[in-house]
Amino acid sequence: MLRFIARRFFEAIPVLFIIATATFFMMRLAPGGPFDSEKQVSPEVRARMEAHYGLDKPLFQQYLLQMKHLLQGNLGPSFKYPGRTVNEIIADAFPVSLELGLEALVVALAFGLAAGMVAALKQNSAWDHIPMGLAMIGLCVPTFVLGPLLISAFALHLDWFNAAGWFFPRDRVLPALTLGAYYAAYIARLCRGGFLEILNQDYIRTARAKGAGGARILFKHALRGGVLPVVSFLGPAVAGLLTGSFVVETIFGIPGLGRYFVTAAFNRDYFMVMGSVLFYACFVVVFNLVADVALVWLNPKLRFE
Amino acid sequence: MLNKSRVARNVYLTSLTACVVALLVGGCGRRETLTAIGDRTQELRINNEGEPSSLDPAVATGTIEHEIMSSLYEGLVTPDAKDLSLHPGAAEKWEISPDGEVYTFHLRKNGRWSNGQPVTARDFVASYHRMLLPSMASQYSYMLYPVKNAEAFNLGKISDFSQVGFKALDDYTLEVTLHSPAPYLLSMMIHDSWFPVPVAVIEKHGAIDDRNNPWTRPGSFVGNGPFVLKEWRINSHILVEKSPTYWDAKNVRLNKIYFDPTESTDTAERMFRSGQLHSDPQAPPSKVAYYRKYKPNLIHVYPLLGTYFYKINVTRPPLNDKRVREALAMAIDRHAIAETVTRAGEEPAYCLTPPNTAGYTCRSKISEDVAAARRLLAEAGYPDGKNFPTVEVLFNTLQSHKAIAEAFQAMWKQNLNINIVLHNEEWKVYLDSMRRTNYDIGRFGWNGDYVDPSTFMDLFTTDSGNNETGWSNAEYDKLVRLASNTGDRVARYDAYQKAEAILLDEMPIIPIYFYTRPRLIRPSVRGWYPNVIDQYDFKSIYLVPEDN
Amino acid sequence: MADTTPIAMAAPAETAGGSSFWQDAWHRLWQNKLAIFGLIALSFLAALSFASFLWPNITGYSYEQQNLALGPAPPDHVHWLGTDPLGRDLLARLLYGGGISLTVGLCATAVSLTIGVIYGAIAGFAGGKLDMVMMRTVDILYALPFAIFVILLMVFFGQNFILLFVAIGAVEWLTMARIVRGQVMAIKRQEFVEAAHALGLREWRIIFRHIVPNLLGPIIVYATLTVPEVILLESFLSFLGLGVQPPHSSWGVLIKEGAEVMEEYPWLLLYPGAVMAVTLFSLNFLGDGFRDALDVRGSKD
């Protein structure tokens, strides 16, 4: 097992390197630069600013410099926020996204597993169709619609919450619900599918024939197998969840990392983009690994894959 | 046996209960809103439309920063919020020489930085020196160009700052020498490029011309304004507190100002409605009509010193024919746009400069005359739009720009029978295209930096970096230069009228409307007045709790 | 790597006088009421949308015809679903937008399907080093944050309709490739393939006659489930301003514009939202139905 994990970490290094290179060249070759603004700066000022950040050097030289800095863990300065480094911005924004992501995950797992289990147990009945139908809403209503709807109902009309912001504990509720809805729906469907597969298999029938009680069967045998597809799905999904959602953070005014992914690309904030991409990539690698380890642990048959 | 029903029901009830509990705990009943708390504690909460790029006047780029900086710094003069007349700020009085080229400012002896040090004339000179340093690469250094040799120093043509027209005659006397009279100089001085910065403090934290110098962080920030920086969390909030060392602290009534950087106008409006903000400067267009009708005491719509127009690339056929340009400008209905598309009470623009800009109102006007437009188009060789090549309108991705462009597309099709294609580009790509004059017709907006027609007229001189149309007219250049070199208001405005007439005859631009501000503001905010540059006077603003 | 568990599938059985696998599957699908409802709803909407696509004035109004004087009006007998702030008929824009959204959905899915199947099949079939390199590339692409990647694509190539398909398809093919690879590897190991080898059948005959038919099940399921994802992705792009460009409409555009004004003009969100939701529901139910019918079991949705 440890060799497996070590090997995966080792393999991740060239992956990250390629991602960094691809990102570097894509960003630099895109039209528009960080210093373009509506009130155009004079060419002299522009030249000075570019020189300040080393953007006037030949492209390949900049690339090597960037790689060197990355190896040292230095993600560079931000153009959009002079005086702040990318490391600093990520360190400041990430905990917020992390908290939101975890809360959304809790919401998603709570709703999703519960609904999926019940639907599988009572397949093709109202207990199945209604929760699955509700789950569909999470899948079919985009977050930028769900968010304002929830705000309109609970914050503006019922006045239970603030419309935006991230200061009080109650500010977490609506964003977590909005972000979690899609994942709750997905998990519910996966869970139901996985559970059904297990419940219909022979060894469950055997256990039942042997007289084992309902809950025991459920939690001992089916859960392990039913959760398998959820784990597989969650691997990469959690990476996205924890690094933040642009839409939810914009609608609820949350100072998280998700916004930076989009705004940095729009602002051509080169170092911020590089930092965000690599940060996200690391997360994906780590969570893929966690998911794979969990899968193997849950289903010994996979060990030979 | 497996009792599915019981298990299922138990699972369900547990999760349902959990949700209900969570919701209840999360949101119980009526609470005191943040604005009500602010009313009690004299904490003003406003949205300033975006996260500031910097709070250093030499690095900052726009109005977002200016709003905050006007609480943290005080310039030589301060504007009255009602009519923008100029009051003594850091300078308690000043004299202007008869030829209009030398200004002598007498600074207050009790002016203090927030670290207790006195504000001296040397501080001002050092600040301007820094602002004009070529290595500072400050975007607004051009605001100091009326001063003798300022431009030369800034461009690196001379390296001796003592030749530049800033002199500290003694600790409290500042002499500013211009290269030619500039009657609008004092109104330029309310801009942050003229604010003083604590150069000694900056040098303690790093190089004087380093954009990334961390001196503006809370804790190390020092300013001479009525408020001091207390908290600054990027994309979350900025909090400033009343400065005890400010010379007029006893007349400052607010204790704190909370700046919210939300960019999304929808989110900001919801925050206003739920009692988190005292003021939201930009109500979304769809809500303006609603507020004006049902909650008129919460909304103020007032004109801004800015024009929304389309730039025309005069180097590309068929747009190189001025008859075509005129036809395009005449065949649209600006009123309809203002009324039905933007719906924030904008005034249609029939010329470039907004009316009554420091007393200047343009006399030339574009007339909206579809018949005349069709005639012009026919004369240009495209009768009834026949053979008119496809022309593209470029704008950056924003719902309002899109709606306006779509409306024009339909109008031009209907009135002139020509096909216009819409092309939106993402912001930076759009800026890049505009800069390279790589467009046919491009949407543009310009907010005046200071209240004087020159801030608009200077745009279209041949060497203006913001021209971007490829249009060049020697007579126009001459008139604008004449106006900027004389102090005689009558002569200046006369020159501008002539210049604007040329502009509207050649039509390298299609003015569309003058900006307005649909501002949402709670009645508890007192001492605030609308003005065309949307300047806050934080010294005079105070809060009175609303009776529920 | 987060791979799929080996997907087990019933091999096609052709017993004399019995029904084939596909006939069984169809029969099971027919029994699934939700799936059939989905199929009918989908067909109806698709027919309407494509009809309006081909005959733009089918409702009497075009999707781009503005009526500034009218402005946003609630539904009435003239405009059955009301108008938007520029006075354009919502029904016309909804149908036209439906055509666009479904086209984007189908084309992007087709793109992702083609790339994914070919890529995954090659990787799965070849195995060894080639497989490792190909899957590593998939890992790399997976680790790119979608938002940045699409923005850069759109920025590079302009906001072209075709590129919208390509950009979305370029993101969706990854999962398809993984699934296909997993499936191919599982099938490769099965006995009937060994038997075919033993019989001396040539490689590509084995691929086409034996492996590909067994791939169809998961591909159909996954493709059906990719279309709603694509449509949602397109709506996210519209939220960012990168989706379908004016004056064309799509569900993403309509929903985004509707969400902004949902308190003043609720019909602008209600109808597009409902139609899009019904379509996505239908596609998902249909996909589930296919999965149940074809008895495809897998750890990925």
Descriptive overview:
With 305 residues, chain A is mostly helical. In chain A, α5 crosses α7 (173-199) and α9 runs antiparallel to α12. The model of chain A has no long low-confidence stretch (mean pLDDT 83). Chain A contains 12 helices and no strands. Chain B is of the alpha+beta class. In chain B, the strands form 5 sheets. In chain B, strands 11, 12, 13, 14, 15, 16 and 17 form a 7-stranded mixed sheet that branches. Chain B has a 4-stranded mixed sheet with strand order 1-10-9-8. A 4-stranded antiparallel sheet of chain B has the order 4-5-7-6, covered by helices on one side. Chain C is 69% helix and 0% strand. Chain C has 10 helices and no strands.
Question: Which tags fit this structure?
Answer:
A: 305 residues; mainly alpha; 0% strand; B: alpha+beta; four-stranded mixed beta sheet; 17 helices; 19% strand; globular
Q: Helices, strands, pairings?
A:
The complex is a heterotrimer of chains A (305), B (548) and C (301).
Chain A: H1 2-29, H2 43-52, H3 59-71, H4 86-121, H5 126-140, H6 143-157, H7 173-199, H8 202-209, H9 214-242, H10 246-251, H11 258-267, H12 270-298
Helix pairs in contact in A: 1-12, 4-5, 4-7, 4-9, 5-7, 6-7, 7-9, 9-12, 11-12
Chain B: H1 4-26, H2 34-41, E1 43-47, H3 63-72, E2 77-79, E3 86-88, E4 91-96, E5 102-107, H4 121-132, H5 150-154, E6 166-170, E7 173-177, H6 185-188, H7 199-205, E8 227-233, E9 237-242, E10 256-260, H8 265-273, E11 279-280, H9 285-294, E12 299-312, H10 322-330, H11 334-342, E13 347-348, H12 370-379, E14 391-396, H13 399-416, E15 420-425, H14 427-435, E16 441-447, H15 454-457, H16 474-485, H17 489-506, E17 509-521, E18 525-526, E19 542-543
Parallel strand pairs in B: 1-10, 14-15, 14-16
Antiparallel strand pairs in B: 2-3, 4-5, 5-7, 6-7, 8-9, 9-10, 11-17, 12-16, 12-17, 13-17, 18-19
Helix pairs in contact in B: 10-12, 16-17
Chain C: H1 21-31, H2 33-54, H3 90-126, H4 128-142, H5 146-157, H6 161-188, H7 191-198, H8 203-240, H9 251-260, H10 267-294
Helix pairs in contact in C: 1-10, 2-3, 2-10, 3-4, 3-6, 3-8, 3-9, 4-6, 5-6, 6-8, 8-9, 8-10, 9-10
